[in-house]
Amino acid sequence: MKILVSIVEDHEPLRQILAEWIGQAPDMKLGRTYPDAESALVDLPQNPADVVLMDINLPGLNGIECVRQLKELLPATQFVMVTVYMDADRIFKALAAGATGYILKRSSHTEILQAIREVAGGGSPMSRNIARLIVEKFRTAQPQASDMERLSDRELDVLRLLARGQIYKEIADGLNLSFHTVHTLGRRIYEKLHVHTRREAVARFHQTSRLNPPESPQDPSPF
Fold it and tell me: How far apart are alpha carbons 201 and 190 in whole angstroms?
């Protein structure tokens, strides 16, 4: 049985090229093509495809949100992002939305058709550059956990309260510490996490899965 492939791409020349490639592939059949997310959201649920090639940077609703909405309606359909973006955040958002593959628009005719075959067969195709970017992202994420583990229990108390939106004076009162001590702890936190602002420190705190803010800080007794 041929793989039914639809396309959501606003750039008409590229949409036509992709359509021609798919139409000429002996094991594929071209489905519907769409210039934007809105038309795909209206029509695809009534005319589902096995695989959908989805651009990210669409006019109006973007491709990631389009995939998110369509995946709920078409759980069996596989979505492959075809994009110029080599951005780790976009990649992770697309995968979290329900995309199964992520390849670059500059990929060759052979690579794009192979990606369609791979995703239809249960795989998760990605351009080599994309796969490398994801690996590097995971590698750089590991030191963050190590940095967080360097914090003392008291520094973790302060960071948890900073994450809750408290200012130094409130933290000092709550932990029965002097303002100077809390300020010093805050400086140590910044140094150990290699950050420069409270926002960066709090973001690092939330990114570290092993740290779940408790309902109350640990024993508030001073050093």
Answer: 7
